[in-house]
């Protein structure tokens, strides 16, 4: 939010129980910080729960009365809206986002609770739209979003790493290979986003029958690269369902 000038540091208050981290947060961002969750809940118009899944329900429970009628956005995987709504009369939303949001390139999705209003949804879309793209989903789709969007960057980093290692094996210096691999993935992703063309259409733009790209794609098919990535998303989604409360 600060990166994209959506709001100023004086409009944000954050709770952090660890003294050194609280001091670091204040110094780096200029936001108001406190060690007390209750202080945040008291003054904030929107409460974002950016804590580990195991802590979400205890945090809500300790401030359940203060949260009544507040808009609360949970960023945690696994904790269902019904579980949160059972212990507080807040207006709950869930948003799954990912680490590229730190540079304004996030991929986010929201699922609304039973008490949220259209105005709540529009506001949250505006906020997360400032740091990337956001889509609406049903809550039963959120584990797939967690797997694809949340875990997805790790899968992409593995692809970048593998491309760079391939370049090294063919004689490129490690730093050159990594630079080229990273920029290739970045450029290809941006081209897909800006043109709106399908991956198949974009792939055809690169392939020459019997050429180098065709040979590389044949090798990927032989080694099951696509199947491996699909399986990674499926496994991450399955784990998300197992963790759900």
Note the topology:
Blueprint: E1 13-15, H1 19-29, E2 32-34, H2 37-43, E3 46-49, H3 53-62, E4 71-74, H4 81-85, E5 91-96, E6 106-112, H5 118-129, E7 132-136, H6 142-150, H7 152-169, H8 174-195, H9 199-206, H10 212-222, H11 225-243
Parallel strand pairs: 1-2, 3-4, 4-5, 6-7
Antiparallel strand pairs: 5-6
Helix pairs in contact: 6-11, 7-8
Task: Give a written overview of the molecule.
With 245 residues, the chain is of the alpha/beta class. It has 2 domains: 9-139, NAD(P)-binding Rossmann-like Domain (Rossmann fold); 152-243, ProC C-terminal domain-like (ProC C-terminal domain-like fold). 54% of the residues lie in helices and 13% in strands. The strands form 2 sheets. Strands 3-4-5-6-7 form a 5-stranded mixed β-sheet. A two-stranded parallel ribbon has the order 1-2. Strand 4 (71-74), helix 4 and strand 5 form a beta-alpha-beta unit. The radius of gyration is 21 Å and the shape is elongated. The model has no long low-confidence stretch (mean pLDDT 93).
């Amino acid at each position: 939010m600060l990166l994209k000038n959506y709001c100023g540091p004086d409009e944000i208050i954050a709770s952090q129980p660890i003294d050194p981290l609280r001091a670091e947060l204040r110094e780096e961002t200029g936001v108001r910080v406190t060690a007390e969750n209750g202080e945040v809940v008291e003054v904030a118009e929107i409460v974002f729960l950016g804590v580990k899944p195991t802590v979400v329900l205890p945090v809500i429970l300790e401030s359940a009365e203060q949260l009544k009628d507040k808009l609360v956005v949970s960023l945690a995987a696994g904790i269902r809206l019904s579980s949160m709504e059972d212990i507080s009369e807040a207006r709950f939303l869930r948003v799954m986002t990912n680490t590229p949001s730190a540079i304004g390139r996030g991929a986010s999705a929201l699922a609304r609770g039973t008490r949220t209003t259209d105005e709540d949804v529009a506001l949250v879309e505006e906020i997360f739209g400032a740091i990337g793209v956001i889509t609406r989903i049903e809550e039963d789709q959120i584990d797939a979003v967690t797997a694809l969007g949340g875990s997805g960057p790790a899968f992409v980093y593995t692809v970048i790493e593998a491309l760079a290692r391939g370049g090294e094996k063919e004689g490129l210096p490690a730093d050159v290979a990594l630079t080229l691999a990273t920029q290739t993935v970045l450029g290809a992703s941006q081209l897909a986003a800006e043109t709106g063309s399908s991956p198949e259409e974009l792939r055809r733009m690169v392939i020459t029958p019997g050429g180098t790209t065709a040979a590389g794609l044949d090798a990927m098919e032989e080694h099951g690269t696509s199947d491996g990535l699909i399986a990674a998303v499926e496994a991450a989604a399955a784990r998300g369902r197992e963790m759900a409360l």
